[in-house]
Structures are given as structure tokens and as C-alpha cells.
């Protein structure tokens, strides 16, 4: 049964969105939202990819207004992924690291509170709880009493991804063969969920993040660890706690100010 539809949109302004997503995309998104707004029983969210072109309080507020207008349930903000050619040519789209941290803090400590109970604001950074660990990681602690495996990064714990060919993965950002657990066109999900990689994920599996006091609540992002450190089980490179493990070249790409 279909219970959640996510629609990608990067700005409430057509020209900014279409600069990032392609000409005419904004209009198609609005048409889609108009149709979806009639379906009360489907959870609807906007997925926003943060770049230097759209990372602003004004854009976040504009997207909330747009979401409310079309009965959207949630807005999910995700950092631009750091993979392949994109990471090599990212300079134009990469926000400064300082600006990015400030924005995540704004979402986590101001926008979520402002629209609490009205529209859900979600931040795709597992470590965003660092801005208020007692409160934010505390919520994960409470959730763990009901779902023991839960962490801020849900990959392989409370969520799995399925590609259009049926391949099952920990997360849709992990497409490499080593992360494909099986294929749902040939195998049953129940027969696939107890394997080595899932057991590893359930443990305290990252080398650096594994040393962190919050690893059991946060976990960091496996995909970004792979993209930057070439090892999914190392560390989330964008976490403020892990800056010291980044090479000068990576720091330059990520626009660190130090
Ligand atoms: S070091 Fe890793 S586990 Fe700790 S807060 Fe950062 S991303 Fe999360």
C-alpha cells in the first residue's frame, strides 16, 4: 500500500528551482502537488536538496508556506550529496560549511519549533541532534524503548531501499554491489533481512563514529562516509565532530573557512 509520497522541490521561487532542477520543473511540481492535495490518506512531503543557491531562511519559510498551501505533511531538508562527478565539480553549488551548519541549527532549533504540530520539518543530518543533544538525541533514546534498533540514520535499521529492478539496499544512496542485499523480484523480504551487512549495521559499526558517545542515537551517514572516505564504515564527514579527519583537499571542496 502506498502511504508516503515525496516530491522534490528546491525553492518556492520558480526561477531558483528551475535553475537547480531544470526548466519547467517548478510548474510540473505545482501541478503534482495540486493533485496530491486531494489525497488526505497519503503522507506527503517535500524533499529539498540544500545548495549554495537555496540555503536561506527565506527559502525555508517560503517552502513551508507552499507546503501548507497544498496540504503537505512534512518538508525534508537534505544536504547535496558528495558523489562522483558532482563532488568533483561541486564548487558552484556547495554552500560554505559555516553557512550550512548555521542553517541546520536554524532548522533544528527554530523552524521545527515554530511549525510544531502544523507541518513537520525534518533534517536529513543524523548528527543535527548535536545542537541540542539532551532534547534531540533524547527523543531517539525514548524511541529506542519501543524500537530498539532505531537511530537518526535509519539505513538498514528501520528502513531499506528498493531500486526499480527490485534490488534491495540499505539506503538508496548506497548502490554498490556490496550493499545490495538481494532482489525482491526473486526473493522474499523475510529471507533477506538477516545477513552479514545488516548485522554489521545493527552493531556499532563505524570506525570513527563508533567512538562517539552519540553513535547509538545518531550513527552518521554511511553513504557520505563512502563518498568522501571511500569506506561506508568510517565516519560521517560533515559532522562537526569529524572535521579533524578531513584532508585539506576535501576541506577546500567543502568550503571550510578555517
Ligand atoms: S561523530 Fe558520528 S555518531 Fe557522533 S555525532 Fe558525529 S556523525 Fe553522529
UniProtKB/TrEMBL annotation:
<feature type="domain" description="4Fe4S-binding SPASM">
    <location>
        <begin position="153"/>
        <end position="212"/>
    </location>
</feature>
<dbReference type="InterPro" id="IPR023885">
    <property type="entry name" value="4Fe4S-binding_SPASM_dom"/>
</dbReference>
<dbReference type="InterPro" id="IPR050377">
    <property type="entry name" value="Radical_SAM_PqqE_MftC-like"/>
</dbReference>
<protein>
    <recommendedName>
        <fullName>4Fe4S-binding SPASM domain-containing protein</fullName>
    </recommendedName>
</protein>
<dbReference type="Pfam" id="PF13186">
    <property type="entry name" value="SPASM"/>
</dbReference>
